[in-house]
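Deliverable D4.2, example record:
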Amino acid sequence: MATLNEIAYNIKNIVEGGVGSDDSNLSTRQIKQMIHVKRAELLVKYTDNGRKTSDVCYQVDIATPSMSGYAYKEFLGFNNNRAIRSVGLRESSNIEASSEILPLVQDQDRTFIQSSRFMRNVTKKYASLLDNKIYVFDGDSLVSSGTLEIKGIYSNPTTVSSYVDDDTTQYPIPNELISVLTQEIISKEIVMLYNLSANTPNNQTDEKTQSKNVQR
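Output generated by the structure prediction step:
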C-alpha cells in the first residue's frame, strides 16, 4: 500500500519528467482530487462483476449517536448501501468497552420492526438511515449515548475520523489498483487538462512573447 502523498507525488513526477517547474499547470491538490474520483470509479467497476471488495478499502468513522441523528460521511455510490459494512455501538469511547454490531435497516422498514411483536420482545438496538443520517434505536426510542463505529468505503478517505494525514495514513485502495489508477489519471484526466491549458499561454510563453515585442 501507499500513502496519498506517495501516489500523488509519483503521478506528478511522471508527468513532469522528474523536473519541477514554476510554470506547471498541475498542482498536488488537483492530483489528490483526481485520485479520490478515480479510486471511486475503479472500485465500483472492480465489484461490478460480483468481485468482493478488499478489506483495505474500508475505514472506520467514529461518531456519537444523537437524537437528531449523525450526518455520516459520504459513502461510495454502491447500490443497496453495500459501501457500509457494519455499524457498531460501543458503550463508551473506551476501546475496551463492550461493543455490538447493529442491524442496519432502511427507514421505511423501521415501522414494521417497531410493530413486530417478535422485535418488541427482543428489544435489540438497531441503526436506521434517513436523510443522510444514521439514527440508533432501542425499540422505538432513540439512543444518544455510547460511540458509533461506522465501517465502510468512503468517497473521500481523508474526511474519515480514523484518517490521520496524507503522509502516514495508508490510502485505502488495493495494491493491484494503484498502477491502474496512476495510468488512468495520467492518460485521461491529466492529458485532458494539458490539452485545455495548451490554448492558454503560461508565464514562460508570455515572457517569450514580450521579448519578441521588445526586439521589434
